[in-house]
Write a structure and sequence with these properties.
Length: 397
């Protein structure tokens, strides 16, 4: 088979969580095609490991909130133009944008408008915009230029299908992360931790802005916990984009801190921990799959908060709580994200085995809803991408 006959998939991830999804999708595409697939686009270390040569570094796009975005706007516009041109120049058999809708959906819309008459590029988006949480009108807007949507949650397809956009529920990729297969004994042995060491997983996020805001609060929280919880050890899983920032901060903490990178060490650490203090985000689902009780914290810029308070229509930030319809996992956000409140919430779970068991029991149903135990989500997604790339199914444009 000549290179021209091997399908080219153009992938765009805009943040570390999308890079994880993209890496798994690429691996599944290679498995299902017997390696007969090519890649181009934008990604991070996971996607690069699967063979992607990224147009530019992923961390240029990993921004959050209006206040963080504005200073970087000129560069983002330049990267938006560059990415759109790269898609049109490469003539891929399909384009898959992964989450990060502020950037990726703008690329998709521009590509749709710029395609010459008769040229076909299936435009697929992986991870549905949360129209059920805020701005439901987005469903109709993206249906005008996307061809297919790969969704993670079972209740999402109707929101888009009623607007004429084809949808496939693939399950949440977090269920294939390995978060439920960590080895606690291996982690303790690797780091010389005694059996009586009390391990607190501390996860401050993957974006520079969120890490910078949460690390001081987390450090102060540990200072309040240290006198009443002897033997407390913090383990801090992190990613390449913020590893230096996290490592420098953890070196000053009032309890021993172990910074780890990579999935195996991360999930071993979660298996060994009694509890997690974590930024709001996808990591909350990893903690649920690991059956690790947690306290969720988050801060965003005040300007961004004012905007979001007018738009967000859901009562909880944590997807586990949203799916259960109740506050199972404590959420301390914005003005409540204070060291005294964080320390009190963490101490309650450290000191109360019944409270920890309540969380562990409650997340089992959520794991089932996310697709745990079924066909891997990345494989389901890859099947759709290959089918659309091959032209077996009409795109309807």
């Amino acid at each position: 088979m000549t290179e021209a006959a091997v399908p080219l998939i153009f992938l765009i991830a805009g943040e570390p969580s999308g890079d994880v999804l993209g890496g798994r999708l690429m691996a599944a595409l290679k498995r299902l095609s017997g390696g007969a697939v090519r890649f181009a686009g934008i990604g991070g270390e996971r996607m690069i490991a699967e063979g992607l040569v990224s147009l530019f570094p992923l961390d240029e796009l990993a921004l959050f909130g209006l206040a963080e975005l504005l200073p970087r706007l000129p560069n983002l516009i330049r990267r938006l133009n560059q990415t759109t041109a790269a898609v049109l120049d490469s003539h891929p058999d399909a384009m898959v944008t992964i989450d990060a809708p502020s950037f990726s959906l703008r690329v998709a819309k521009r590509v749709r408008r710029a395609l010459p008459a008769g040229q076909r590029i299936p435009l697929i988006h992986f991870v549905a915009p949360t129209v059920w949480a805020w701005r439901p009108e987005r469903a109709a807007k993206i249906a005008r230029f996307l061809d297919h949507l790969l969704v993670l949650l079972p209740f999402e397809p109707p929101w888009f299908e009623r607007e004429g956009l084809a949808c496939t529920f693939v399950g949440h990729p977090i269920v294939e992360s390995g978060a439920d297969r960590g080895d606690a004994a291996r982690f303790r042995a690797a780091h010389g931790l005694d059996h009586d060491a009390r391990i607190l997983a501390v996860l401050p996020g993957s974006r520079t802005s969120e890490v910078g805001r949460l690390l001081p609060d987390f450090a102060a929280t540990l200072a309040l916990l240290a006198p009443t919880h002897p033997g407390l050890v913090a383990v801090v899983p992190t990613v390449a984009q913020v590893a230096g920032q996290v490592t420098a901060a953890a070196a000053t903490w009032p309890v021993p801190a172990i910074v780890v990178r990579g999935d195996r060490d991360k999930y071993d650490a979660l298996a060994a921990a009694e509890l997690a203090l974590a930024a709001s985000g996808t990591v909350a689902l990893e903690l649920a799959l690991a059956c690790l009780p947690a306290v969720i914290a988050y801060r965003i810029h005040p300007v961004t908060e004012l905007l979001y308070r007018r738009l967000i229509k859901v009562p909880y930030a944590n997807l586990v709580n949203l799916m259960l319809g109740r506050m199972l996992v404590p959420e301390l956000l914005q003005e409540n994200c204070r060291p005294d409140k964080l320390a009190a919430a963490v101490a309650r779970l450290l000191d109360d085995p019944a409270a920890r068991r309540e969380q562990i029991t409650g997340v089992a149903e959520v794991a089932h809803w996310l697709g745990q135990g079924s066909t891997p989500p990345s494989e389901r997604a890859a099947e759709v991408v290959l089918r659309l790339a091959s032209g077996d199914r009409p795109i309807g444009r």
